[in-house]
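We treat protein structure as text, and this decision shapes the records that our systems exchange. The tokens are whole numbers drawn from a learned vocabulary of local backbone shapes. One such record is reproduced below, unchanged from the form in which we store it:
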Amino acid sequence: SDGRVIGFEALVRLCPPGMDPMSPASFIPLLEETGLIVTLGEWVLRKACIQGRAWLDAGILPGIIAVNLSPSEIRRGGVDERLRRVLEETGFPPQHLELEMTESGLMEQGEHAETFLRSLKALGVRLSIDDFGTGYSSLAYLKQIPADELKIDRSFVMNMLADQADGRIVEQVVALGHAFGLEVVAEGVESA
């Protein structure tokens, strides 16, 4: 409400020379299919932590820096080891880092999701469930996972003023998140 920056998300965009920027929807699936998403994911994590450390050293508190984890990275394993290594090497405080995972990507993990998330929480980072409302939205699942935040999918937020059903969904997800003690972020807010 006071205009302070409280956090941001590190995103990748591909801008080939002499061409229009490419949508992540066009290159991320290829990176996931080939396994290169793990290399890209670690590169983005490292760059975000290096920049965050530089801001802290300059006396600028960046708030929270969010970095996405793809379902492929989670499936391939080793996320906690890569995260531990990057945090140690960059000196970025884990409490300023948030890892975002899609609801559907976590649901793929089944019973292993809770163990996986607890291993990340043990490193001191924040956890965010991205695109909430587009997957299975299991309430039993939601109460078991050690998340800090829910991000309501932009498809609901962008139409919530024109579509009563979307408005009700947003309203109820906010109430649900707060009932579980989670912060709630609405993606896609583009006007006052």
Remarks:
- The chain is about 50% helix and 15% strand.
- Residues 4 and 11 are 20 Å apart (CA to CA).
